Amino acid sequence: MAYLKPMLLSRIAPQRPVREAKWGALARRRTGKALAMLLGLSAWTGSAGAAPLGARCASEEPAHELEAGESPRSGPQRSGPPRSGPQRLGPQDADQPAVVLAARTSLALVPFGPDLGDLDLRHRSYPRVAPQIESLPGVWRGRMEGWQEDMTDADSKVQFLAMRQALEALVDCEQSYERMQPASGRQREQYEESFALAHWLDWTWRDWIDRHDLAGTWLTSWSQNPSESVATRARALELLVAARHSDAEALLIHHAHQTDGDLRPYALVGMAHWPRQALDRFLARTYSASPNDPAVYALMRHRLQEHGKLHADAAQEMTPVLVQQLVQDDWQVAGRALLLLERFEPEERFEALMAAMPTVAQGVQEGRARWRILADMAEQLREITGRSMGADPRPWLTLYQRYHAGQTPLRVDADAEPGGISQSQFFGIGQVSDHVTFVIDVSGSMEAPFGTTGRSAYDEAIEQLIEYLRVAGDQAWFQVVTFSDGAKTAVSLRRAEARTLEAVRKQLKGKRPGGGTQLGAGVRRALKVNRPGRPGRGAHASDSIIVLCDGATIEGKAWAESLVNDPEFPQGLRFHCVQIGSAPAPAMKALARQTGGRFVRR
Question: Please, are residues 433 and 543 in contact by the beta-carbon 8 Å criterion?
Fold first, then answer.
């Protein structure tokens, strides 16, 4: 285990007598009152009073109400200014409340303008199966068995030291394996060993939280102690959230309220991974306060895509802001709102779409808004109601009036009524926009025959692309990127005029497929040539990208998810992906899913 940094090994408790001696040194290093830094709220927060966890703070509407089975911890409170110098909590402080929140830190979900920077939305995940301690390196087995033994000791000092060392070891283990590249040989072995150790420690901590009240108490205290490192405080908070500890919900809201606090981003990410009414309302109000903040948008998108619908009251508070975004002329802003709205309840979506659709249609008619936004609205209305009535808002408004008058149900059998948006198809992808970039696979496998057409897959792609653009009309704008071992712009940005389309057909047919399948290169090229800031692009930048690939790419889906979550990604952009063949296509599925587009297999 030489790859682990020396600090990690030095923090791990050896045999029991040494652990006792170390505790004595730790106790002697304490200066003043150990909890002054945590509980001296008059100096720390500028507030003269404090309210124990779960207590209602002075506000119009408390954010946290205890449910059945929850019980707030209470206990004597200490006050006074914090002493100078580093401070650590000791076991004699175990009778203190798990967390004390300043009265002025109201849990009333007051909106504020965040400045979050780049949020890491990853959720630390280990197998739920308990790891086997016999599978760990021998040098660790004795230490871990010693910690487990200490947790059965009646002496709270011994328990405290075991928990302290186990948390520090977990943080260091995770930092070690996250810096490693899981390659091959010894490096891969080291990565797997570090991951196994972190898995064991994570599982051990969750077990302790379930079985020992002190475990949750000390994690809560450490997460609140400014003298701890940010990594330690954040990991303590994450363990409480993962265990759904009774203190965790109020802790998340408390930390998220600290606009200049180190743990605020971690608290907001924790909220996005935990569907709870108070947390959903906090996220909704955070989004409403800063709807154009990319980090806040990514946070809300993750919450909805990964964990389902918001609680009803949170959705209600957020809906008016989404309507305001839908009617904006900026297609990226409107596209982001549509993507979030897809995860709302049908009735809420219907009301929001009907409130915005007439304004958007007027903007399209005047050349201010994008037709794609109107088409996306019509598609969502078709999904909600089962009716295909196109992008004209008038029949939808008639349906809206009849529905509210109780004369017709909101939903009928799917596609029971005729009248779709367009019959134009590209391998099953309908007319999604009039500003499109096509990303076409030109690898060697595209020379294979396509069905019974008598044409290769590549030739069929050319014919369907030309027909799609012909139906779209000469007011549509498009460009074509091709990829195999690399990527290039085969057709630069231009209008879909008849003479242009014939020249494009000849140009594309003049090149034959060959090489490998680097889908990532094609997608990144499309984003590069489509940047709105590029000269001549602005008003005609594509709001939709249609990808055609045989699926046999050299990449997995991780790069696609990372790409969409990048702060520089043009949020509101849609990827629609077509796979030819039966090979797995995780990257294309991820691109379509993450951006609200369609995935079609042919």
Answer: yes
SS3 480: strand
Buried b (16+ CB within 10 A) or exposed e, 45-79: beeeebbbbbbebeeeebbbeeeeeeebbeeeebe
- Alpha carbon distance 358, 538 (integer Å): 25
Tell me which residue of 477, 570, 578, 557 sits closest to 527, measured CA to CA.
570
**CB within 8 A of 147, min separation 6: which ones?**
13, 162, 165, 166, 204
| pLDDT tens per residue, range 484-533 | 999 999 999 999 999 999 999 999 999 889 998 899 999 999 999 887 65
State the Rg of the chain over Cα: 29
CA 385 to chain centre: 29
Q: Which of 413, 423, 384, 112 is nearest to 268 (CA)?
A: 112
CA angle at 464 for the pair 461 and 465, rounded to the nearest 5°: 80
The arithmetic mean of pLDDT across residues 286-312, rounded, is 91
Spatial separation of the C-alpha atoms in residues 89 and 214, rounded to whole Å: 13
Distance of CA 102 to the CA centre of its chain: 30
Q: CA angle, corner 423, sides to 418 and 428, nearest 5? A: 110
Contact 126, 199 (CB under 8 A): yes
- β-bridge partners, 290: none
The closest of 354, 515, 502 to 443, measured between CA atoms, is: 515
Length of the chain (residues): 602
Rounded to the nearest 10°, the torsion over CA 470, 474, 479, 484 is 10
Report how far residue 322's alpha carbon sits from residue 301's, in angstroms, rounded to the nearest whole number: 13
- Do 393 and 358 touch, CB atoms closer than 8 A? yes
HSE-up of residue 115 (Cα within 13 Å, Cβ side): 4
Distance of alpha carbon 389 from alpha carbon 312, whole angstroms = 28
Give the contacts of 55 (CB within 8 A, at least 6 positions apart): 72
Residue type at 254 in one-letter notation? H
pLDDT tens per residue, range 345-382: 999 999 999 999 999 999 999 999 999 999 999 999 99
Q: Give CA separation, 349 vs 298, 335, 398, in Å.
A: 20, 14, 17
Q: Return the structure tokens found at 188.
A: 């891969």
In the predicted structure, residue 144 carries a pLDDT above the cut 90: no
What is the C-alpha to C-alpha distance for residues 151 and 327, in angstroms, rounded to an integer?
Answer: 59
Structural contact between residues 458 and 514, judged by C-beta atoms closer than 8 angstroms:
no
Q: Tokens in use for 22?
A: 């170390």
* Strand duo 100-102 + 435-441: pairing: unpaired
SS3 sequence of 414-441: CCCECCCCCCCCECCECCCCCEEEEEEE
Q: Nearest 5°: phi and psi at 151?
A: -70, -15
d(CA 36, CA 100): 12
- Distances 31 to 23, 34, 371 between C-alpha atoms, Å: 15, 7, 67
Taking only the tens place, the pLDDT of each residue in 175-230 is 887 777 666 667 777 888 888 888 889 999 999 999 998 899 999 999 999 999 99
CA–CA dist 547, 526 (Å, integer): 10
Residue with tokens 């000469």: 474
- Please, are residues 547 and 560 in contact by the beta-carbon 8 Å criterion? no
Instruction: Locate 587 and state its tokens.
Output: 């990257």
Asked whether 296 and 287 are in contact (CB, 8 A), the reply is yes
Question: Quick one: tokens of 356?
Answer: 């915005």
For residue 545, the cross-strand partners are: 437, 575
User: Please, are residues 82 and 40 in contact by the beta-carbon 8 Å criterion?
Assistant: yes
